[in-house]
Amino acid sequence: NGIDGNIWNPEKDKLIAKKYSIKNIDNKLLNKKSLIDKFGLEFDETKPVIGMISRLNDLKGFDLVQKAFKDLMKLDAQFILLGTGDKKYHTFFEKAFAKHSDKFAFYLGFDDQLAHLIEAGSDMYLMPSKIEPCGLNQMYSLVYGTVPIVRETGGLADTVDNYDETTGSGNGFVFKKYDAASLLVEVKRAINLFSTDKKTWLKIQKVGMKNRDGTINIDTGYIGNPNLIELYSGVIEGIKILKEKFGFLIVVISNQSGITRGLITQEDVDKVNKKINDILVHGKTRIDAFYYCPYHPEFDSEEKCKCRKPSPQLVYTAAEELKIDLKKSFFIGDRISDIECGKNA
Fold this sequence. Notes:
By secondary structure, the protein is of the alpha/beta class. It has helices at residues 28-38, 62-72, 87-99, 112-121, 137-143, 154-159, 180-196, 198-210, 235-244, 266-282, 313-322, 336-344, and strands spanning 49-56, 78-85, 104-108, 124-127, 147-151, 173-175, 251-255, 289-293. The chain folds into two domains: 22-210, Glycogen Phosphorylase B (Rossmann fold); 226-344, Rossmann fold (3-Layer(aba) Sandwich), CATH 3.40.50. Helix 2 (62-72) links the parallel strand 1 and strand 2 (78-85).
């Protein structure tokens, strides 16, 4: 499980109209135009394109999309859907395409090149799943600077932080209740921000593109293959300075709910952690300890989930076992749950 950075990467993607990165994100607009032109829609860079790539069934949330569809078509946005699944949805979306061809496009089936173009050319990505143990498209979207709009469930909840107008934090838009009204609220909120505050929108895009696991290694999803590990530039040097110059112990604390979901095993996580340390040892440094919580509240008891961040339980465990003075320690992370965990400790 995980993203292959050689395939899903806007800097390397050979299937999109124009490659781009966080440094030249303006090139993303050329992919938007290419996507719009492909379906004969009118191109307007001020109007957001909302993409969807999915199996068309109830578990993926298309009962909500169907219920909200009339209201979605009233919004100042364009929608592009790629997928196949239940025949009732084939019929519904084909009729919708014929009726709303000025702002809704539907491709029945799957096309890999089109999937890449949708990720690169859309401004937002809608993923309203009822159940989503892992989910990859929201992670692709983050990498491509395509802001995800998701329901808070499973892997979507783990990877997308709801944008908070007060703090400015977040990398997407999240709704909790499984109903069409809640979906519409977040879609409207995303469209409003896109239309009224380009500076903040760009910040959210860049947060998603930059924080792909945040602190040590680039996130490729629930990594079960140590060969997918890629450390951020400067990590080795930074850890060496903290350990050698300032005498800090370096401890990694993570949520690994992919274990309880059956997406990865504890052995996989241990191998990945060993791989990280092998790379660091080659650079003459190392992480002193790894702690992780394998549980998730959707699958396990509240008692088991007490180790899950933002709970500070594993911080206390590390402090006791390694004799760490928390008052003289720092907690670094890239997620809201990380910051809350640090505050709670």
